[in-house]
Amino acid sequence: MPALGFHDHDHSACKTDTLARAEALCREKGLRLTPVRRRALEILLAEHRAIGAYDLLAVLAKEGLGHQPPVAYRALAFLVKAGFAHKIEALNAYIACTHLGSDHVPAFLICTTCQHVAETETAPAKGRLGAAARDAGFLIERTVIEAQGLCPSCQETAP
User: Fold this and answer.
1) Beta strands in 1-159 (DSSP E)
2) What is the architecture of the domain spanning 11-157?
3) Phi, psi (5° rounding) for residue 152?
4) DSSP string computed for 109-130
5) C-alpha–C-alpha distance, residues 125 and 53, integer Å
6) Whole-angstrom Cα distance, residue 16 to residue 22?
7) Domain spans in the chain, listed from the N-terminal domain onward
8) Whether 79 contacts 94, CB under 8 Å
9) What is the pLDDT of residues 40-81, one digit of tens each?
10) pLDDT per position as a tens digit, 106-127
């Protein structure tokens, strides 16, 4: 699974395809993609940057979709639980999932300069972490892997 976000791609198709896949998954799973949830996903899909809940709320409020923090937090909670978005812990922000519908363990590559985030796949349970967990008799249920550094564009402009 390639990392999206740092490489050129048809972003319009990326957004359209991901939204269509989210709608299809909602139909398959009997989930409700309400207007606020749908718009929240569209906002997250606008670019490959993580967005804070209050930044999301500002856009929703400007569009008349609610102005209280629970509006944004409920929409984000739905998107994360449905697998349509991920929380980037290091930034306390959210990003749309670029691999909707696939059972994957994401890893996030976060540019410390421009704040772009690329999602890629990893298999920590099969690597050193998995070996250490097995040795300790520990069963990994969830991991959050976030690496911070410089994206290709920011590396080119770095002094």
Assistant:
1) 85-88, 93-96, 106-111, 117-121, 145-149
2) Orthogonal Bundle (1.10)
3) -55, -40
4) EEETTT-BEEEEE--GGGSHHH
5) 31
6) 10
7) 11-157
8) yes
9) 999 999 877 899 999 999 999 999 999 999 999 999 999 999
10) 889 999 998 889 888 887 777 8
